[in-house]
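stuck on this:

***
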Amino acid sequence: MRKKQKVLPGFGLSLGITIFYLGIIVLLPLAALGMKAFSGGASAFLDAAFDPRSIASYKISFGASLAAALVNALFGLLLAYVLVRYEFPGRAILDALVDMPFALPTAVSGIALTAVYAPTGVFGSAFARIGIKTAYSPVGIFIALVFIGLPFVVRTIQPVLEEVDHEMEEAAASLGASRFQVFVKIIFPEILPALLIGTSLAFARAVGEYGSVVFIAGNMPFQTEITPLLIITKLEQYDYAGAATLGAVMLTASLLILLIVSALERLTGRHEA
C-alpha cells in the first residue's frame, strides 16, 4: 500500500523547531518570571502583589488602558471606514499619519505629547482654561495610550473592510435599507472579529507601555504612577522579586482579558457562520 504523502514536507521537523523556538523565546522567560516572583514564598508574593501602592498602580494602568482601548475601538473603526470608503484630498497623507506611533520611538512620542499637553503647551493651555489638567494627570496617561494604540485598531480593520462585498450592500440599499441599516446588518458583523482583535492588541500594548507615558504622567505614587514604572523603581532598588511579582500579576491579568476577547471573537464568528 502506497504511503500517503504529507501536505507539508518535513512537518515533524518544522513543528519541533517551532516548539523549541517558542520554548526558548516565550515559555522559558515566563517560567523564570514565575519562579522569581515566588522566590520569597507565597506570603512575600501576596504582600508585594497586593501592596496599596501596587494596587493603585494596577488601577491606573488597567483603567487607563481599558478606556484608551475602547476609545480607539470607536475612532479607529471610524477612521478605517473613512480611509477605505471615501476619496478626498490628503487621504494618502492621513493614511500615512496613522502609522506615526509605530515609527516614532516611544520616548520621542512621550516628549512630544508632554510638550503639546503641558500647562504651557498648545492644547494643555487650552484645556487649562476650562479647568482640565492634561499633562501630569491620569488624563495625560489616557491621551498617551490612545496615541500609541490607535494604529492597531485601524490597521486590523482596514484590510477586512476592503474585502466586504459591495454587491451585498448595493442589494440591501436597492431593497430600501438605509445606510445605517446596511452598516449594522452587513458591514459591522463582517468586521466585528477584526475590531475585537485590534482592540485587544491596543489594550495589550497600552498595559505594558512605558516610554510614551512616563514623561506625561508625572509619576506620582497613588496618583499617576503606572505599574511598568513601579517595576522599574523596584529594579532600581534591587527588589527583583517584587518587580517579578508585579510583572506576573500584569501578565496574568492581561492573559485573562485576551482569552476573554478571543472567546468573544470565536463566539461572534460561530454566530456569523
The chain has a mean pLDDT of 86. The chain has 13 helices and no strands. The CA atoms of residues 37 and 241 lie 5 Å apart.
